[in-house]
Amino acid sequence: MSAEEHPQSNPLIPKQSRTPYHISGKPEKQDLVDEYKGKNLDALRTPALIIDRAVFARNCAKMHEHAKALGARFRAHVKSHKTPEGTRLQLLSSADETHSIVVSTVMEVCEVFRAGLMADGTVKDVLYGLPMAPNKIADLSALTDELSAVGAAMRILIDHPDQVKVIEAWESTKANNRKWSVFIKVDCGSQRAGLKPESPAFKHLVQSVLGSPSVSLYGFYTHAGNSYASTSFAEASEFLLAEVNAVNAAAGLALSIIEGTPGLQELSEPFVLSVGATPTAHAATEELKPRIEAGLKGVLELHAGNYPLLDLQQLNTGLITHSDIAQRVLATVTSYYPGRGEDGSDEAMCDAGALAMSKDTGPRPGYGDITGKPWRLSRVAQEHGILTMMSPASFELGPLQGDGSLKLGDMVQIVGQHACLILAGYPWYYVVDSDMNDANVVVDVWVPWKGW
């Protein structure tokens, strides 16, 4: 038996887990399309997740325009929707095209492959966007081989020198060695993953990568998750500049190490400097290009993930409007309570709770706002939520429908705080298209990938 079959024979390689993609059951798309296509939204069982395909597609085109304005490549993160249909729209828009994606789970790589997105050339470059866990190296190694066979590249993210040691130990068990293509994760201030480029630990990591026979340094990757706190274009722009400065400093350090260390192989291609989060990507403009290009020590790449869908968190940045939001949750008013609010206002109950909306919050109060009605989802339990009346001044998801009142049996559409977590609660999404005659009619059903 080889070490690949029994990797625990090497102390650096723990027992391997496997992605059960071959037994990961999910609903059949065609069955769902046959059942729901052509039905009005009022015929759906609630809660239901609705995506407006026309808005989703426009958002994808806008992001391609942002990347072009910045003079950057674009890499689409697919973890928000986890569907082949959404991935195609992200990569092939009316404005431009790209063939590079980021994923958050190994299952997503497997499903992108199974969907034929690599075989037909839609996806040519995949980054597994979490620092590599040692018990997933067998899966990632096998996927690298599968992707290579159809002309696609697999890249991983690292932020610790022990990850380099695990890769080297893995490769030492194989007859035919490869060099793993890696991004080094840079912390630009969010303290979620990665290392600060000015830290001694970062320099040690770069030296470990550059001196490894099993790793090829593709570039540097950062994500300003803290940019979600932006409330203006100016604030988001500063976060974007901080991202660029962080990866540029990292690249400068690597170049100085290469220059000052005899025997290190010189670069055959410039480093890829990958930056982005949905708020900072929305701040990418041609006006910022001169400030970003000056002294750039590599090729700039922009990445983002939430942008096709959007939500209340993104609305609060001031960089989008309510008409840009492509997703919402359809819910039914299940009861009504006149005068029950603390100020004597009315309250209502709906059938969308924590599992339908997530418990993510944001700068705005509550868990979601109703479109066209001055009501907010203020409290949630597992399967139900409490709707409370909003002040007219805080209502943004207009225009107002009727007199704004609710009654038992009404179906309402709720825009939640964080689309990525909301979508994770649904086995499928009902797709409408506002560019067609009736935006309340189901035109397709998307089935997301599930699992890790």
UniProtKB/TrEMBL annotation:
<comment type="function">
    <text>Catalyzes the conversion of D-serine to pyruvate and ammonia. May play a role in D-serine detoxification.</text>
</comment>
<dbReference type="Pfam" id="PF14031">
    <property type="entry name" value="D-ser_dehydrat"/>
</dbReference>
<feature type="region of interest" description="Disordered">
    <location>
        <begin position="1"/>
        <end position="29"/>
    </location>
</feature>
<dbReference type="InterPro" id="IPR026956">
    <property type="entry name" value="D-ser_dehydrat-like_dom"/>
</dbReference>
<comment type="similarity">
    <text>Belongs to the DSD1 family.</text>
</comment>
<dbReference type="InterPro" id="IPR001608">
    <property type="entry name" value="Ala_racemase_N"/>
</dbReference>
<feature type="domain" description="D-serine dehydratase-like">
    <location>
        <begin position="326"/>
        <end position="433"/>
    </location>
</feature>
<keyword id="KW-0862">Zinc</keyword>
<feature type="compositionally biased region" description="Polar residues">
    <location>
        <begin position="8"/>
        <end position="19"/>
    </location>
</feature>
<dbReference type="GO" id="GO:0046872">
    <property type="term" value="F:metal ion binding"/>
</dbReference>
<dbReference type="GO" id="GO:0008721">
    <property type="term" value="F:D-serine ammonia-lyase activity"/>
</dbReference>
<dbReference type="GO" id="GO:0036088">
    <property type="term" value="P:D-serine catabolic process"/>
</dbReference>
<dbReference type="Pfam" id="PF01168">
    <property type="entry name" value="Ala_racemase_N"/>
</dbReference>
<keyword id="KW-0479">Metal-binding</keyword>
<dbReference type="InterPro" id="IPR051466">
    <property type="entry name" value="D-amino_acid_metab_enzyme"/>
</dbReference>
<keyword id="KW-0216">Detoxification</keyword>
<keyword id="KW-0663">Pyridoxal phosphate</keyword>
<dbReference type="InterPro" id="IPR029066">
    <property type="entry name" value="PLP-binding_barrel"/>
</dbReference>
<dbReference type="GO" id="GO:0009636">
    <property type="term" value="P:response to toxic substance"/>
</dbReference>
<dbReference type="InterPro" id="IPR042208">
    <property type="entry name" value="D-ser_dehydrat-like_sf"/>
</dbReference>
<keyword id="KW-0456">Lyase</keyword>
<protein>
    <recommendedName>
        <fullName>D-serine dehydratase</fullName>
        <ecNumber>4.3.1.18</ecNumber>
    </recommendedName>
</protein>
